[in-house]
Amino acid sequence: MRLRIEQRPEPSAQMRIAAPVIATALTFLAGSVLFAALGYDPLITLHAFFVAPLNSINGLSEWLLKASPLILIACGLAVGFRANIWNIGAEGQLIIGAIAACGVGLFYPNPESPLLLPLMFLAGTGAGMVWAAIPAFLRARMNTNEILVTLMLTYIATLLLSFLVHGPWRDPAGFNYPQTALLPPAAMFEPFDYAYRLNPSVFITAVAVVLMWLFADRSFLGYKMSVSGAAPLAARYAGFRESSAVWTGLLAGGAAAGIAGMAEVAGPLGQLSPQISPGYGFAAIIVAFIGRLNAFGIVLGGLLMSLLFLGGETVQMTLGLPAALTRIFQGVLLFFLLAADFFIYYRLRHIPEHA
Amino acid sequence: MIPRLELHNITKSYPGIVANEDISLSIQRGEVHAVLGENGAGKSTLMKIIYGAAQADSGEIYCDGKRIEAHNPAISRSLGIEMVYQHFALFESVSVVENIALAIKGVFDLDRLAAEIKTLSARYGMPIDPHRRVHDLSVGERQRVEIVRCLLQSPKLLILDEPTSVLTPQAVVKLFETLRQLASEGCSIVYISHKLDEVQELCDTATVLRNGRVTGVARPKETTSLELARMMVGSQLPEMHVSPSVPSEKPVLEVRGLSAPARDEYGTELTNISFDVHGGEIVGLAGVSGNGQAELIALLSGERTHSRSETILIGGRPSGHLGAGERRKLGMAFVPEERLGRGAVPPHCLWENALLTAHRTGLVRKGLVERGQARDFARRIIDRFKVKANGPQSSAQSLSGGNLQKFIVGRELTLEPKLLLVSQPTWGVDVGAAAFIRQTLVDLSRAGAAVLVVSEELDELFEICDRLLVISNGRVSPPLIRKQTNREEIGLLMTRVGHGEARRSEVALEN
Ligand SMILES: Nc1ncnc2c1ncn2[C@@H]1O[C@H](COP(=O)(O)OP(=O)(O)OP(=O)(O)O)[C@@H](O)[C@H]1O
Ligand SMILES: [Mg+2]
After folding, report:
1. Residues B419, B449: contact at Cβ < 8 Å?
2. What is the pLDDT of residues A303-338, one digit of tens each?
3. Among residues B218, B214, B175, which one has the least CA distance to residue B198?
4. Which residue spans traverse the membrane (chain A) (predicted)?
5. Of the residues B45, B340, B390, B427, which should be mutated to test ligand 1's pocket, given the most ligand atoms within 8 Å of the CB?
6. B192: nearest Cα among B18, B395, B401
C-alpha cells in the first residue's frame, strides 16, 4: 500500500469542523509525551494549562481582558489579509495609539471632563491610522513592500515610546521609574467590579467583531477586497483600484490596533511604561489566521490564544515549568491547528502497489 | 493489434453532476481520434483522467495492453503520454525555457534546450522566444508554448484539448502537418475541438459525448459537418440573421493617434492608432496574436490608462485617463481573453462573479451586497445563455471552459452596454453556443450598441463584422468594408512587415 495526497474535489465540510478537534487532540498527545519525557505529570500540567486559569472569576476576567485586544486587532488585520495586504506592524500601531491616547489623557486641560475618554478613543484610533497610513501611502504611490515598512515602523514606535517615558513624559513624582504619571479617573474605563480588571472596553471589541462580519460577509467593500486578494487582474479588469484595497486594508488594521492601544492604557495599565504590550500586535496575526479571517473564527482564535498566554504563566508559576517549554507547547498547538487545515482541502488516498 | 489506449467503463462524478458515465473507447497506434461534444459534455474531464490529472471513480485504463493502476501525470509522461490542457498549466513567473525544462525528465542544459525550442518552434510554424516570461505572453503565445512542450518529448500518445482555439490559421495548417507526420510515425493523437472543419480534415475517427455519455461514433472524413454538429448538439443549429447595419451619426468609440510604449522589452509598442466604432455596427480587429492586441485592448478597457485623455473618446468624452470602473460608467463592457483570473475570479462562485461587473445594476444597496438579487442576476445569465452549472453557487473554476466563457459573455451582454469590447468571444464555445453568442452580438449592435471584436478567427470576423481593421506590429490598418474585402487581403495585411521597420521576435523567428 502507498499513500498519496490529492486535492479534494471540494473543501470538506466535515473536516472544517473536525480539523480543530483533531489538532487539539494531537496537541494534548504530543504535549503529554513532551511533559512526561521531562518528568512532569502530563495530566496535572495540562490541567494547569487549560483548566486552572479559568477556575476563578478573576481568571475568567483576565481571560477576556487579554482576548479582547487580540480579537480586536485580528479583526482589523483580517480586513487587509483578505486582500493580501500584509500589515504585520500592528504592534507599532498599538503603541502609537496608546501614546496618543495617553497624551490626551495626561495633558487635556480639564482632567475631569466626561469628554476625556471619547477624545482619547479618537486620538488612539487616529494615531493608529496615521501610523498605518505611512506604509499605505508608500505602497500605493511607490509600490514599496508593506511587510517591511510596517515592521520597521514598529521599531520606531517602540523607541519613541521608550524616549517619551524616559524623557519628556516621565512622571516627576515617579522615583525615576521610566513611566508616565497615572491617568486621571475620568480618562480610564471603570472596571465592572473593582476586584477585577475587566472593563467595558470589551464592548468595543464586540462591536468590531460585528463590523468585521458585516464587512467580510455582506459589504461590497469587503467583496472588492476579496477580489483583489484572489485575483488582482480581475480586480483591475472590474475597475477596483488596487490603491483603495491597500488603503482600506492598512487603515482598518491601524485603527483597530490604535483602539486596542488606547483600551490598554485607559484600562489595565493606567499609564505608559516601556513595555505596554505582551506582543498583542504579533499574536493577533496568528489569531487572524487561526480564525481563517472570519469574524466568528477570530473570536475563538483570540480566546484560545489568550488562554495559552494565561496557561503558560500558570504552569510556570505553579509547576515551575521552564518558560521555553511553555512556548514550545504553544507552538505545537498552533502548528497542529494550521496543519490540520490542510486536510480540509486535501486528502490521503491508499493506492495499491503495482501488480 | 494491441490498441495504444483503451478505456473501459470510465465513470467520474463531481458534486451534483456526472461528468463521465461508463465511457469506453479504444485508439490504435497512429490513429487520430476526435472527441466531440457540447460545452460541459465531459471531454476535458475524460482527458484529465487519461493523463492522470484527475482520478476516475471507476473504470480501467490500458496503455499498450497494460493496465495503468496508480495513475498520475508523472506516470503518463514516463509512458509517453503528453497533454495540452485547455486551461494552460504554465508557471507564470518563469521563462518559457524554464517551464519546458520542468516538464522534461533527466538532466538538461538550458541553453541547448532554448536553442532547440527556437528551431523546433519555428519549424512547427509556432515561433516562440524561449527567454520570455510566461507572465507576459498572450493566450495565443501560451498555447504555442504548451504545444511545443509536448512535441519536444516525441510522445506516443498526444492529447490536445482545444489546441487551436487561439492559433492563427497559418499556425493551424503547420500544426496539422506536424500532427500528420507524428501520426505516420505511430503516435496516437486524441484531438478535441469545436471547429468541425478541423476535425474533418485531421481525424480518422470520432467519439461523440453528450452529458457525460458516449452518444455516437463517426468517421469525420465521411460525415458532413452538419451531421457531426447534430450528433453533438442533438438538435438543429440556429441560423444566423445579420440584418444590414445602420451606423449612428456620431461614433461611440473614437481612437485618435494613440501611441503607447511597450510595457516591457517583449511587449509591442503601439504607433499612431486611429479608428472609430459607431453605434449599430460591429468592427473586427484581426491580427496574429502578439501584435499589440493585448496592449490596445488594455488601453481601451481602462485596465491601463493613458496620460493623454483625448486619445480615446467614449461617447465623445475624452477617456484615455479614466480607469476601467469609470469607463464602465460611460456604458462600456468588456470580455477579456483570459477567463480565469481576469474575466472571473476562479474560487468565487457565479453570483459573486456576476457582481464583479454588474454591481452597478442595483446589486449593491447602501454599500451592502444584495445577495438575493445577485443570485437572480446570475441565474438569468445561466438560463439565457444555457450555462451548464449547478447554479449560482458553483465556483467559476468548476465550470467547463466553454461554459465559463458563456457566463462571462452573458454577464457583459446582460449589462446592455453602449460600447462592448470583446476578445475571442467564442473561444472554446461549442458550435451551437457560438452561433448563439454571435447572434447576440449582432442583435446588440443592431439595437444601437458599438461592438469591437478582437479575434484571430477570420471566419468569425467575416461572419459578423461590418468593417475590419488589421493590427500588425502595433499599427492598425485603415478600415476595410467586409463586403469589399476578402481573406487573402486581410491575411496579407496581418503578416505585413510594419512600414520598413524590422519586426520583433515574431517575424524574425518566422523567417
Ligand atoms: N473541478 C470540478 N468541480 C465540479 N464540477 C466540475 C469540475 N470540473 C468539471 N466539472 C463539471 O463537469 C462537467 C464536464 O466538464 P468538462 O470540463 O469535462 O467539459 P468539456 O466537455 O471539456 O466542456 P468544454 O467544451 O466547455 O471545455 C461540467 O458540467 C463541469 O461543470
Ligand atoms: Mg473542456
Report:
1. yes
2. 999 998 899 888 888 888 888 887 888 788 888 888
3. B175
4. 21-43, 63-81, 88-109, 115-138, 147-169, 198-216, 280-308, 328-348
5. B45
6. B401
- Model pLDDT, residue B509: 35
Instruction: Give the tens place of pLDDT for each residue, A86-142.
Output: 999 999 999 999 999 999 999 999 999 999 999 999 999 999 999 999 999 999 999
Per-residue pLDDT at B503:
34
Given a cut of 70, whether residue B294 has pLDDT beyond it is yes
Amino acid at B472: S
- Using a CB-CB cut-off of 8 Å, the residues of chain B touching A4 are 70, 72
Q: Is the CB of B398 under 6 A from ligand 1?
A: yes
Instruction: State pLDDT tens for residues B2-19.
Output: 899 999 999 999 887 899
Which pLDDT tens digit goes with each residue over B382-426?
Answer: 999 999 998 999 999 989 888 999 999 999 999 999 999 999 898
- What is the spatial distance between Cα A22 and Cα B253, in angstroms, rounded to a whole number? 60
Asked whether the beta carbons of residue B356 and residue A238 sit closer than 8 angstroms, the reply is yes
Kindly provide the ipTM of the predicted complex, given to two decimals: 0.81
Highest mean predicted confidence (pLDDT) among A86-95, A170-179, B61-70: A86-95
Residue B32 class from Cβ within 10 Å (0-12 exposed, 13-18 middle, 19+ buried)?
buried
| Residues recorded for chain A | 355
In angstroms, rounded to a whole number, what is the distance separating the alpha carbons of residues A179 and A164?
9
Task: Please tell me the residue having the least CA distance from ligand 1 atom 12.
Answer: B19
State if residue B130 touches ligand 1 by the CB under 6 angstroms criterion. no
- pLDDT at residue A352 greater than cutoff 80: no
B445-487 residue pLDDT tens: 999 999 999 987 888 899 999 999 999 889 999 999 988 888 8
Which residues are CB-contacts of B215 (< 8 A; sequence separation ≥ 6)?
Answer: B208, B209, B231, B234
Number of neighbouring beta carbons within 10 Å of residue A317: 10
User: Distance between CA A128 and CA B73 in Å, rounded?
Assistant: 51
CA quadruple A147, A148, A150, A154: dihedral sign: positive
Cβ distance of B325 and A240 shorter than 8 Å? yes
Residue B82, H or E segment: strand B81-84
pTM, to two decimals: 0.83
Angle, helices A116-142/A146-166, rounded to nearest 10 degrees: 140
Return the ligand 1 atom nearest residue B405 CA.
Answer: 26
Count of all residues that appear for chain B in the document = 511
Beta bridge partners of B68: B61
A219–B348: do the CB atoms touch at under 8 Å? Answer: no
**Domains by residue range for chain B, with CATH:** 5-233 (3.40.50.300), 250-331+419-511 (3.40.50.300), 342-416 (no CATH)
Residue with the nearest Cα to atom 3 of ligand 1?
B398
Q: What is the CATH number of domain A57-309?
A: 1.10.3470
How far does residue B399's CA lie from ligand 1's centre (Å)? 5
pLDDT of residue B496: 66
Please name the amino acid found at residue A196: Y
Write out the E strands in B405-460: 419-423, 450-454
Q: Which residues of A247-280 are buried (b: 16+ CB within 10 A; e: fewer)?
A: bbbbbbbbbbbbbbbbbbbbbbbbbbeeebbeeb
Average pLDDT over residues B156-168: 86
- A113 touching B, CB under 8 A? no
> What ranges do the domains of chain A cover?
1-40+321-355, 57-309
Q: Which among B416, B317, B407 is positioned nearest to B360, based on CA atoms? A: B416
Q: Between B303, B344, B369, which is nearest A219 by CB?
A: B369
